[in-house]
Specification:
The protein has 18 helices and 14 strands. Helix content is 57%, strand content 16%. The strands form four sheets. It has a five-stranded antiparallel sheet. Strands 9-11-12-14-13 form a five-stranded mixed sheet, covered by helices on one side. The chain has a two-stranded antiparallel ribbon with strand order 1-2. It has helices at residues 4-28, 33-52, 61-90, 95-114, 149-172, 176-201, 211-253, 272-278, 282-285, 309-313, 357-384, 386-413, 418-445, 458-475, 495-513, 546-550, 567-577, 601-604; strands at residues 121-131, 137-145, 257-261, 267-270, 318-323, 329-340, 346-355, 454-456, 478-485, 491-493, 519-527, 533-539, 581-586, 592-598. The N and C termini lie far apart (104 Å).
């Protein structure tokens, strides 16, 4: 019964097919050299297996030597390929050891192909013809061992050390299970071959060496690891496709503009929202330079350097104009993410844009409404102070009238001296300037446009407020007391706004204390060592309830029967524009206390009033 021949041919054929499959896979994915070395190992093992067919029967000495020489060379090539397969497959082997093994086997292959005998025995004394237990004849060499056999034994031992080292290093890095599935069979079959060969030489086992069969078996065992990767790759490809479809559905449905820009700065794709936003199709935009799609915030500015990812990454939510097909421009807030390939080279970017056109329009309308609101607040404040203004204005007007009448009488009597006339004229000019200054102050209080910040003396500004409100306080029989606690000599801000805030707080305090005798308001101005400004107003009224405190600064919310609910809202707005804060609490002994804290100029001079 002939078994070895069919086994050799079937093994060689399987190895050739496996090697061809590995080679085809490598041709498709050139960045995976492990498949190339697996192919070389399989094909070389198959060739070695076919050489072993020559051992069967009773071959001639010359045929046997040629077959043994060729088989030994193919085994050397297979071992070199096996080492580099493990190196590229597991990425944990010592590369220098791989080169050492490659060098030893390369030298051995040269000796094998140039030695007149063969690598096992220097000179062949003859052939030992044996038979298997099933009576199949085969031959083994008999003769003196060649010195180069020690070289191949050293190379084989180095391979065992290399494989063991790979397994140990893999377990230390956490990839031991994967390494064991790959390198474990290699180590197993090498050990089997190392045990089988001495047993054949000692006639314990009556079979040929079967070296080629064992190396094909190693290639087959490695196939399980490689095939599992191929299957996992197919599974991952399917998952990626599913995930891609999910993301595509999100991209198609989201109300955000999405632009994919390739590494050359050209538009690769846009989503349907962007198409509808600017009235241009993806087919129309595809392949065009992306910097023609994005514009700076100025309509006449240069195009954005879209091919420079750092320009985009350095700007969070950068505002850009997006030109539409109808000639209009959409103002967008863009967030951009730079993309890179595996090697770290640029792969373009993805720009995600949100249309801000309507929001910015609404914000502009809101700012305009706010300015009108504050103007209304000032008008209401002046309305409440109308009697005081009339009183203050009547005094210089009455004085002017009195001086004018006196001058008329003196002129009619003819007794007017030059000095008397000059004195009367000076009084008239002084009273006229006083009336003019008062009306100018009222007019500036009703200013339009943005206020200008400047340095001013906060104590002088507060004193002017108290002088203005003093007649009203006297009418209400309320005592106003001022306390000064080391305020800064000058402060950078809008003087008129802060005066407006203090007027609102003091007027509220007057209304809280009522018209009964004994009302008291304490106004304190102080400062911090860093130049900050503190202002407080406290009264001895009924205080503020918890329910009212929650909505105290909300516009158009008031507890007064005739109030508009804008005074405290304006106060908060003024404080916020100066980067400050306002705190509300209870006064010791009853009443309310408002405290304004404004930071120094270093923090406030960059803030822009609106």
């Amino acid at each position: 019964m002939q078994l070895l021949g069919p086994i050799y041919f079937m093994t060689a054929g399987f190895g050739i097919i496996l090697g061809a499959v590995y080679l085809l896979i490598w041709l498709r994915i050139r960045d995976q050299p492990a498949f190339l070395f697996a192919s070389v190992m399989s094909l070389a093992g198959s060739a070695a297996t076919l050489c072993e067919v020559s051992y069967l029967g009773k071959p001639s000495t010359e045929d046997f030597v040629n077959a043994l020489r060729a088989q030994s060379a193919f085994i050397g090539v297979s071992l070199i390929a096996m080492v580099w397969f493990l190196q590229f497959r597991l990425q944990v082997g010592r590369r220098w050891l791989g080169w050492f093994i490659t060098g030893l086997w390369s030298i051995s292959i040269v000796i094998i192909l140039t030695n007149p005998g063969q690598i096992v025995t220097g000179w062949l004394d003859g052939l030992d013809y044996r038979t298997t237990p099933w009576n199949e004849a085969f031959a083994l060499p008999v003769g003196e061992m060649h010195w180069s056999k020690y070289l191949t034994d050293l190379a084989s031992l180095a391979i065992v050390i290399y494989v063991i080292d790979v397994l140990l290093r893999a377990f230390r890095t956490g990839s031991g299970a994967h390494a064991l599935r790959t390198a474990g069979p290699v180590l197993f079959f090498i050990v089997v071959a190392g045990i089988h060969t001495p047993l054949v030489d000692a006639s314990v086992i009556q079979t040929p060496y079967l070296i080629g069969v064992i190396f094909v078996a190693i290639a087959v065992s490695l196939a399980f690891s490689l095939v599992s990767d191929i299957a996992r790759g197919a599974w991952l490809n399917r998952e990626i496709q599913i995930e891609r479809e999910r993301w595509q559905s999100v991209v198609d449905a989201v109300d955000l503009a999405l632009v994919r820009v390739d590494a050359d700065g050209k538009i690769a794709s846009v989503n349907p929202f962007l198409e509808g936003l600017i009235g241009r199709s993806s087919a129309d935009l595809g392949g065009q330079k992306a910097d023609t799609l994005f514009m700076e915030t100025g309509l006449n500015s240069d195009p954005v350097p879209i091919t420079d990812p750092e320009f985009w990454n350095s700007q969070e939510a950068a505002a850009r104009f997006l030109p539409a097909a109808d000639g209009t421009h959409k103002e967008m807030a863009w967030h951009c993410v730079a993309l890179s390939k595996e090697a770290g080279t640029s792969d373009g970017l993805i720009a995600i844009g949100k249309d801000q056109t309507e929001r910015l329009k609404a914000e502009a309308e809101r700012d305009e409404t706010r300015r009108e609101f504050e103007k209304l607040s000032r008008a209401l404040t002046l309305g409440e102070l109308a009697s005081t203004i009339a009183h203050e204005l009547s005094q210089p007007i009455a004085a002017v009238l009195s001086n004018a009448q006196t001058c008329e009488i003196l002129l009619e009597s003819g007794s007017a001296g030059r000095g008397d006339i000059e004195e009367i004229i000076q009084d008239i000019l002084r009273d006229t300037r006083r009336a003019r200054d008062l009306m100018g102050h009222v007019r500036s209080f009703m200013y339009d446009g943005d206020p200008e910040r400047q340095w001013f003396d906060p104590v002088t500004a507060l004193r002017a407020v108290l002088e203005w409100l003093q007649p009203e306080a006297q009418r209400r029989r309320i005592a106003i007391r001022q306390i000064t606690e080391n305020p800064p000599r000058s402060f950078f801000g809008v003087e008129l706004e802060l005066q407006e805030a203090m007027i609102n707080l003091i007027m509220n305090a007057m209304q809280a204390t009522g018209d009964t005798e004994g009302g008291e308001i304490i106004v304190t101005i102080g400062g911090e060592a860093d130049g900050g400004l503190n202002l407080s107003v406290e009264d001895n009224g009924p205080g503020i309830s918890d329910e009212a405190a929650d909505k105290l600064f909300a516009p158009f919310v008031t507890s007064k029967s005739k109030g508009m609910g804008v005074g405290l809202a304006v106060v908060r707005r003024v404080v916020e524009r100066h980067n400050g804060r306002i705190d509300v609490g209870a006064r010791a002994g009853g009443g309310a206390r408002f405290v304004i804290t404004l930071p120094p100029v270093q923090q406030t001079e960059l803030r822009i009033s609106a």
